[in-house]
TrEMBL record:
Swiss-Prot/TrEMBL catalytic activity: 2 pyruvate + H(+) = (2S)-2-acetolactate + CO2
Example GO BP: L-valine biosynthetic process
Enzyme class: transferase
PANTHER family given in the database record: ACETOLACTATE SYNTHASE SMALL SUBUNIT (PTHR30239), ACETOLACTATE SYNTHASE SMALL SUBUNIT 1, CHLOROPLASTIC (PTHR30239:SF0)
InterPro entries found in the cross-reference section: Acetalactate_synth_ssu (IPR004789), Acetolactate_synth/TF_NikR_C (IPR027271), Acetolactate_synth_ssu_C (IPR019455), ACT-like_dom_sf (IPR045865), ACT_dom (IPR002912), AHAS_ACT (IPR039557), AHAS_small-like_ACT (IPR054480)
Protein's UniProt keywords contain Transferase: yes
Phylogenetic placement of the source organism: Bacteria, Pseudomonadati, Pseudomonadota, Alphaproteobacteria, Rhodobacterales
EC identifiers of the protein: 2.2.1.6
Superkingdom assignment: Bacteria
Pathway listed: Amino-acid biosynthesis; L-valine biosynthesis; L-valine from pyruvate: step 1/4; Amino-acid biosynthesis; L-isoleucine biosynthesis; L-isoleucine from 2-oxobutanoate: step 1/4
UniProt KW keywords: Amino-acid biosynthesis, Branched-chain amino acid biosynthesis, Transferase
Native species: Aliiruegeria haliotis
Protein name, as recorded: Acetolactate synthase small subunit
GO molecular function: acetolactate synthase activity; acetolactate synthase regulator activity
Length: 187
């Protein structure tokens, strides 16, 4: 995954804004936030985003240190460089927050997502869905005579590409976990 995804346009992301050379640059960043694993912490972190109108593209959270009672929240968010810096600073000032990492700027990282896709297909469309699933290394986790549930893990772009190909074949439902990410290397 590229270190920085940049979209030109205003916060409304209108196609007309793409033609404006003075439009602000909107970046996508992946933040890893280590917090106390206690009631209300996630609500406080999310409240920071909603209260200030910041967007969350993806959110995952799980306990990562049982003895220290710490959880890791991985947030994919978008904004101008100034907004991203403001988000990081505000998160860092919260009492239950122990560490805020911007994986997008700290160097190479590994990002993965898991998704389940329910596809209703028969005949040639069924065969095509199976062929594409094999190409994407998707696993069939449920099957009936008229449908499949595929499990796909990988970069967000892979998940989105698989969904795009399954839509005309009978995609009827999708469930996604959100991004899980770690920096690469020994640190």
């Amino acid at each position: 995954m590229s270190a920085l995804k940049i979209k030109k346009g205003s916060s409304k992301h209108s196609a007309y804004d793409l033609r404006n050379p003075n439009a602000e640059i909107i970046e996508t960043h992946t933040l890893a936030v280590v917090v106390d694993n206690e009631a209300g912490v996630l609500a406080r972190v999310i409240g920071l985003f909603s209260g200030r109108g910041y967007n969350i593209e993806s959110l995952t959270v799980a306990e990562v240190d049982h003895t220290g009672h710490r959880s890791r929240i991985t947030i994919v968010t978008t904004g101008t460089p100034q907004v991203i810096e403001q988000i990081k600073a505000q998160l860092g000032r919260m009492v239950p927050v122990h560490r805020v990492q911007d994986l997008t700027v700290e160097g190479p990282s590994v990002e993965r997502e898991l998704a389940l896709f329910k596809v209703s297909a028969t005949g040639e469309k069924r065969l095509e869905a199976l062929r594409l699933a094999d190409i994407f290394r998707a696993n069939v986790v449920d099957s009936t005579l008229e449908s499949f549930v595929f499990s796909v893990a990988g970069a967000t772009e892979k998940i989105e590409a698989f969904a795009d190909l399954m839509r005309p074949l009978g995609l009827i439902e999708t469930a996604r976990t959100g991004v899980a990410a770690l920096t690469r290397g020994p640190e």
